[in-house]
């Protein structure tokens, strides 16, 4: 369990450090992400981004199991 927590911590730190470059690539504003902006209201639901993050995390966890 400790190894998993350390690995998760390292991954989160790497994502945090790489976030400025990830944001420049448009990650987080992909086609399929829902964004509604009106006067005094804004709603953002990143469907496509969530799917991509889910697939990447699934692959990483699958690789750690082997």
Attribute tags:
elongated, two-stranded antiparallel ribbon, 15% strand, 66 residues
- Class derived from helix and strand content: alpha+beta
Mean pLDDT: 85
How many distinct helices?
Answer: 2
Largest sheet: 2 strands, antiparallel
Overall geometry comes to elongated
- Proportion in helices: 55-70%
Instruction: Point out poorly predicted stretches.
Output: none
Radius of gyration: 15 Å
Q: How many runs of DSSP E, i.e. beta strands?
A: 2
Return the string of H and E elements.
Answer: HEEH
Distance between the termini: 16 Å
Range of strand content: 15-25%
Description:
The protein has a domain at 25-66. A two-stranded antiparallel ribbon has the order 1-2. It starts with a helix and ends with a helix. The protein has helices spanning 2-24, 47-65; strands at residues 34-38, 41-45. With 66 residues, the chain is of the alpha+beta class. The chain is elongated and about 50 Å long.
């Amino acid at each position: 369990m400790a190894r998993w927590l350390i690995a998760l911590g390292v991954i989160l730190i790497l994502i945090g450090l790489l976030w400025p470059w990830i944001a420049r690539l448009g990650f987080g504003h992909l086609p399929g992400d829902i964004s509604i902006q009106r006067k005094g209201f804004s709603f953002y639901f990143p469907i496509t981004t969530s799917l991509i993050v889910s697939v990447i995390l699934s692959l990483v966890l699958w690789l750690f199991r082997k």
